Amino acid sequence: MLAISGVLFALALAYWLGADAIPKSRLGGMVGADGLPKLLAVSLGLLSAGLALQTLLEARKRRRPGAAPLPASETADTDWSGHAKAMGVIGIGAGFVLLLPVLGYVVSVMLLLIAVTAYSGRRPSVQTGLFAVGGGIFFYVLFVHLLKVPLPAGVFATLFSGAA
After folding, report:
1. Residues 51, 3: contact at Cβ < 8 Å?
2. Which of 112, 142, 110, 116 is closest to 129 using CA atoms?
3. pLDDT for 39-98, tens place per residue?
4. Is the Cβ–Cβ distance between 31 and 21 less than 8 Å?
5. Using CA of residue 60, residue 64, residue 68, residue 74, what is the dihedral sign?
6. Could you tell me the pTM of the whole model?
């Protein structure tokens, strides 16, 4: 785990340097375009340092004389079920990224929300559909209209724009 925390810290540093390379603009205001990426880099750096500290404290606790023996679950091979679940979430995210340019932001977010709720064990229902539709519209209005972030419209926009 110490090696993983080191890799994560290096990634945080690289992310910070990448954010620092974003050109500055006089129109950027107090928090420029690099503000959020730098905040994420600091967060990742702090979390990786926390992981390193936790790993070191656990190792110290195990070496202490008179410490209780490790439970069988901790001495056995790694339980991969948690990793498999995480890989499923990464797969859903990859599907979202692949579908985004084709289907557009709103439809892709709706499908993402449906996939994540289904993957977490919730059965498909009208409520799930309403949640997905509402979430897609909410995030579209938030990013496109309020924050003025251009997002992919997808194939549906070209179909409907040609019909008008």
Report:
1. no
2. 110
3. 888 999 999 999 899 989 888 887 777 666 555 555 455 667 777 888 889 999 999 999
4. no
5. positive
6. 0.54
Alpha-carbon gap, residue 23 to 31, rounded angstroms: 13
**C-alpha neighbours within 13 Å on the C-beta side of residue 164:** 6
Q: Determine the residue type at 58.
A: E
CA–CA dist 27, 5 (Å, integer): 37
109-158 pLDDT per residue, tens: 999 999 999 999 999 899 999 999 999 999 999 888 888 888 888 887 77
Per DSSP, helices labelled H in 2-153 are 2-20, 35-63, 72-75, 81-103, 105-119, 126-140
| Sign, Cα dihedral of 105, 111, 116, 117 | positive
Query: In degrees rounded to 5, what are phi and psi of residue 21?
Result: -80, -5
Angstrom distance (rounded) from CA 82 to CA 24:
41
**Cβ atoms 135, 110 nearer than 8 A:** yes
pLDDT at residue 5, as a whole number: 87
Give the residue among 111, 106, 84, 117 at the shortest CA–CA distance from 96: 111
Report whether 117 contacts 131 (CB < 8 A): yes
